[in-house]
Structures are given as structure tokens and as C-alpha cells.
Amino acid sequence: MANKKQLRFKTEAEEAQWWSENQELIADRFEQANASGELGRGTVARQAAERGGASPTITIRLPVSDLARARSFAALKGLRYQTYLKLLLHEALDSEERRMKHR
């Protein structure tokens, strides 16, 4: 598949505009991925498969206020709060890894 670089946007509005303006491009890439057998169930599923299986279930304690904030932000993004928290954790770990490599 062509260009796989991750897009970066300054605001959610800018991102929403890009997705709106590029619907045909997205559909074309989706069809290409499907035709070539590259279409999967999503990045998280693919990463879990690459790591050797499904994600283990864990329990963590969070302050009620943090959980409420996570639920609110997730709802704004149209995500389940668990998915949103995994996304945040993944991004934080990637950031920390990059920071540690540059020491």
C-alpha cells in the first residue's frame, strides 16, 4: 500500500476536515488493502497479534474524577472509555520510549 506515514493535525477540526475532504482516497485505500489481503481488524488487533495474542485483562484503580474525565473525553471522540485509556497509555509509552532513546 502506498504512503503509510501517520498524519498529524493541529486540531480535531482540522482532522475532521481532512477526513471529510478525502473520503474517496480513504475508500480507494480500503479497497486496495482488501484486494491485497492487507485489510485487518484494526491497528490494536494487528499489534496484539504481532505481540503473540490477545491483550491480557488487567485491573487498575483510578480516582473517580480521572475515570469521569476519561469517559467524557472518550465520548467526545466516539470511543469507549477503555479503548480511549488504552490509546492514551500506548501514546504515553511511545513518547517515553522516544524520550529514553534520546538521552
Can you tell me about this structure?
With 103 residues, the protein is mainly α. The protein has a domain at 56-103: Orthogonal Bundle (Arc Repressor Mutant). It has five helices and no strands. The chain has helices at 12-21, 23-35, 43-51, 64-77, 81-101. The chain is globular, with a radius of gyration of 17 Å. The termini are far apart. The mean pLDDT is 82.
Q: Briefly, what is this?
A:
Helix content is 65%, strand content 0%.
Write the SSE topology:
Blueprint: H1 12-21, H2 23-35, H3 43-51, H4 64-77, H5 81-101
Could you list some keywords that capture this structure?
single chain, 103 residues, Arc Repressor Mutant, mainly alpha, 65% helix
CATH class of the domain at 56-103: Mainly Alpha
Structural class: mainly alpha
C-alpha Rg, in Å?
17 Å
Report the mean per-residue pLDDT as an integer.
82
Order of helices and strands: HHHHH
Biggest beta-sheet profile: none
Shape from CA axes?
Answer: globular
CATH architecture of the domain at 56-103: Orthogonal Bundle
Strand percentage lies at under 5%
Count of distinct strands: 0
> Unreliable stretches, pLDDT < 50, 5 or more residues?
none
Distance from first to last alpha carbon: 34 Å
CATH topology of the domain at 56-103: Arc Repressor Mutant
